[in-house]
Amino acid sequence: MFLIWSFEHGAWWRPERAGYTTNLSEAGRYSADEAGAIVVNDIDMNEVAVRETVLVKWFDSKPPRFHPYHGAAENNEP
What we know:
Layout: E1 2-6, E2 11-13, E3 20-21, H1 32-40, E4 47-51, H2 52-59, E5 66-67, E6 71-72
């Protein structure tokens, strides 16, 4: 399962694409196909899909502060 992080909102997507949350336990879990469709359709490249098992192991509830396309996200502290 995948979670979707929004760099634009500094939060996780909720289940069923219904808003955003900073609480990891309230984040939606998406299949690989659905997560891929969300990320591919984001023309501004502000969304990233993170595999839940990788998130728990490496990122401690938030993805890395470095945006894969734009560098550091605007809402991240230095």
